[in-house]
Amino acid sequence: MQRVTRRQVRKRNNDGPNRFPRRQLFVFIPLLSVCLLLLPATYPAQSRHNATGIDTDGAIINVTAARTDGKKDPITINNISFFENGIEQKVKNFAFDPSPSRIVLLVDNSQTLPTSVEKMRKAAMEFAYEIFDGDQLFTIAYDEKPEIIQEWTDDAKKLETSLATFRKKGNPYLFDAIDAAVKDVLLPLMPGTRKTAIVIIGDGLDRGSKIPYDKLLSELETENIAVYALQIPDRTGGAYRRDHPKASEVLQQITENTGGRLMPFEDPQAAARSICDELRSNRYLLSYIPIETSNFDAKSLFIVPVDGIAVRNKKFQPPNVK
After folding, report:
1. CATH of 21-75+97-289+305-313, one of 2.40.30.260, 3.40.50.410, 2.60.40.10, 3.40.50.2300
2. Which of 71, 119, 262, 306: CA 20 to 30 A from 167?
């Protein structure tokens, strides 16, 4: 797949948006309806999947896998072993996911964040330059409530215009903002879209969210949503938090437990490129049949690759029955 480069973005924006003529749209809608009606008959397995990655034949998780040995051989099911609660599971399939990404940018706009609004805009814009054809971004800014800055788009000029509304105001309700991004933006795309990610641009501080931290973390793990973060230094200097970890520890736990990564804010271009490259080139789907495990208990997940391959995945699968 081809990356949407800065030069290509500017040229495409100058050409204007690509819209269907009205008459062609009327033809397209019935045709689309017929295709949608045929999907269940053509792909019966799809109807068994729910948003949590569990189906009647087993479970599905997202995996990031890459070679570290310099070889060009594809990574296959024979290169990994998968364990749930220490018990090796039967892997049904392990396949590269070529689908486009849906990335939510979640940007801290609170008053005391120790950086400038201009630097926050620049960090968000880097993702518009680094996404590939087919990828799209959804941008949310949060202080005491999350606000939509720009709905799904791959148009850099449109995003740049929208980012002018960034500001610094109020306290950071990070957990509520993540919860809103999951429930209102990403879950409506599922189960058809599995390659989803949230990128937090902030320091991890939360002051007043209604959703408990542990519940939020379980929600992210259940829905197979990878969280990345561009980490700004903790404005509190590592102050202890009564109901959840310190700000820096929040970002570390959320990214590690969901299979994402924690990256420095100082070089947003490198961070955006690395995240977009990884989602496009190194994402796989692993399906397996759970054996000797209980639906009532949380499960630890662990993948052991052969030498020369590095993998990341979410650390836990919450109980299927609550």
Report:
1. 3.40.50.410
2. 262
